[in-house]
Amino acid sequence: MRAAVLHEIGQDKLEVLDDVEAVGFGPGKVRIRVRATGLCHSDVSAMSGVLPQPAPFVPGHEGAGEIIDVGDGVTGLAQGDRVLLCWLPACGTCPACRRAQPHLCLAGLMNAGTPNFARPGGDVFGFAGTGTFTEEVVVDAACAVPIPDDVPFDIAALIGCGVTTGLGAAINTARVQAGSCVAVIGCGGVGISAIQGARLQGAAQIVAVDPVASRREAAMRFGATEAVPPEALADASQRITAGEGFDYVFEVVGRSATARTAYETTRRGGTLCIVGAGAMDDHLRLNMFELFFDEKRILPSMYGGGDVPRSYERAIALWRAGRVDLQSLITHRVPLAGINDALAQMRSGEALRTCIEI
Asked: What is the bridge-based pairing of β-strands 297-300 and 57-58?
C-alpha cells in the first residue's frame, strides 16, 4: 500500500512509497482505511525533531476513515463503521483517568515506540502511535471513535486534533468568560479554532495576531474583532485595554519568545493559555517576583483538555447547528502524492488546513 514516509529526522520532504504494510493487527486492534487526513503543525514539528518521534515514520495523526477489519475481543466496532482517529485514547484505569483528566493519559502515547508499519527495509513507526498519511493503519480499538453518517471524513479528520485542541483551549482549559478581552497569537487551524471557541464563550473582543496577512483576514471571518501583525500587538493592547493587558491570551505557536510576549500581554490576574507544542530545549523565562506579583494564571492545554470523546461530540453538535465553521478551515486539498505541496502550503502560512484526500 502507499504511505508517505520520513526516512530521517530533519528531512523536510516525505517520500510516497507503495511498498509499506500496516502491521500489528490482532486482538484488541482495528484496521482502518484512511479516507481523509489533515496536515497539522505537530507533524512538521516531529519531522524537524522539535517533537520526539522515532524514525523512519509515517506522519499524520488527524485522520478519519472506515474500519475494514476488527480483531478479537473488540466490542462496539464493526467492519464498515465510519470513524475518526484519536491519537490520545484514554485507558480509563490510570491515575490521570481516575482523576477525571483523561486527556493526560499516557497509555496511547506508549504505542509511539511500537512500529505501525513495515517495508522491505525494516520497521516504520507511525507518528503519535497512529500515522495517517497512508491508505491503511492498524491501531488500538480505543483510537477508533465512531462518527455519525452525516459528518464528512474531512470534517471528522479536523475534529480529531486541531478543532478539538483549539475549541477546548478556550472552553475547557481557559474557560473564557463572557464580555472578556482575548488575544490569540498564531492563527493557523488551531488558532482559528481557539478564536471560534472564544466567540462561542461570549468574548467581547478577540484580537488575532499573525505575521501572515491572509491568516489575519481569515481570522476576521471566523470571529476575531481585530487582526494585527505581531509588531502591532502592543498598540492593540494599549487601545483596547488601556495598557492593562488582555483577560486571556492564547499562545498557539509553541515558542518561548511568543509565550513571553503572551505573558507580557496578559493583564495582572489574567490567564495565559499555552496551546502550541514546543521543543524540550526551548525554555520560557519568568522571574520569581513577576510570577508572584502579577498572579497571572499559566494554563497549558493538552489536546484541549477535558474528556476528548465528549469534546468530539460537542464539536459535531456545534458544527451541525452552524455555530462553528469547520468546512472553511480547509483551504487546500491535495492527494497523497501531493503531500509535499501540502507541507509547502503550511510552511508558507498559505494554508489554514490542507486536507490530504486518500
From this structure: unpaired
Three-point CA angle 228, 206, 40, nearest 5°:
75
Position 9 scores a pLDDT of 97
Reduce the DSSP state of residue 223 to 3 states and report it. Answer: coil
Beta-bridged to residue 266, according to DSSP, are: 246
**For helices 339-348 and 41-48, angle between their N-to-C axes, nearest 10 degrees:** 100
Residues 6+ apart with CB under 8 A from 24: 114, 115, 116, 138
297: cell is 494564571
What's the grid cell of residue 239?
487601545
DSSP string, 166-181: HHHIIIIIS-PPTT-E
**Quick count: other Cβ atoms within 10 Å of Cβ 292?**
8
Q: How many helices (H) and strands (E) does the chain have?
A: 11, 19
DSSP-derived letter for residue 294 is H
Tens digit of pLDDT for each residue in 274-313?
A: 999 999 999 999 999 999 999 999 999 999 998 899 999 9
Residue for cell digits 482517529?
85
User: Using alpha carbons only, how large is the chain's radius of gyration in Å?
Assistant: 20
Mapping DSSP to helix (H, G, I), strand (E, B) and coil, where does residue 342 land? helix
DSSP 4-52: EEB-STT----EEES--EE---STTEEEEEEEEEE--HHHHHHHHTSS-
Sign, CA dihedral 304-310-315-321, equals: negative
- CA triplet 15, 82, 315: central angle to 5 degrees? 95
Does the predicted model carry a pTM greater than 0.90? yes
Alpha carbons 316 and 161: distance in angstroms, whole number: 13
Grid cell, residue 233, equals: 500587538
